[in-house]
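Please, why this fold?
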Amino acid sequence: MLVEVVRREEQDAGATQAIPFMTRSSLALVLRGAGTPERIATERPLLAVEHTTLPPNVAFDFTWDGSRAYRALHDMVNRDGEIEGDGIPRTPSRDMRRRMTLLPEGVRVKGWVVPESRVNSFTALYFDQNWIFDQLEVSASQRTLQSHVLFHDRTLLPTLGAWTDVARMRAGRPVVVHGDGTSLWTLTHTDDFAVGFVGLLGHPHAVGDTFQIMGTHAPTWEQVYTWLGAAAGVPDPEIVHVPSEAIARVLPDVGDGLLGDKAHSMLFDCAKLQALVPEFATTITYDQAAHEQIAWYDAHPEAQAPDAVLDAAFDRLVEHARSI
């Protein structure tokens, strides 16, 4: 992911922008004791990022007015706390480490927190969701965001079929891997990404520059599928290699992202980032992360939903590959 760091005052001094800048609203905090939150912010057209470090042992109330879409990554542990809002039931907020919150535009929330004695912080992204939809060319019927409070998304499986692949492995059925399985793909855990991202915020030598934040962990797709299978209890899954072009013809919705992206090896140089944030490193590799993901799915059987269309298409691709 590319990140550009810009000082707000430099933007304000510039000429009129073609795209309006974000409003300066942010999550409102009202402390119940002494202390002041340390807030570092950077702003670009239609999005803003803010990192907040909270004073220790000071309870506080918070509100968000819903003026923009809001996403936050938390590193907080609380003795007690709650959050509630528009369409959001009252939810406890205790161990918030590695938890995220996503609120669409127009959704207001409020709550309170009594933190534990530790360094507690969160990083918030405020953005114009319709501008994002425009950039991604999302159709009007699909322009919806759902509120998610304090979630830890372990569901983003990197394979072509996601959970459908896991279900096939566990059933003893073959899975489809594009090409010969040897192209390299860089996978970066969100915990590692957060170290680089937060390290750049407010760094004086990062202002006005652009950085990519990707790790150095680049397994082959064969390894990715094998590790996922091992985590699912299938240490030697049956893999069938199918040309990427053939997959794209049978599954055009998958084809664009495959031919234009995943079919090619992707490696990244972290030297520029590490020069400013030396603590950034790959600490969680996918052979570890796959176990986290499978454990989440096993604890949430309602999320174990194979895609019937994908499943049938994989059967056709396997049959075709074996007939050649």
The first strand starts at residue 2 and ends at 4. Residues 78 and 272 are 36 Å apart (CA to CA). Residues 163-323 form a domain with the Rossmann fold fold (CATH 3.40.50.720).
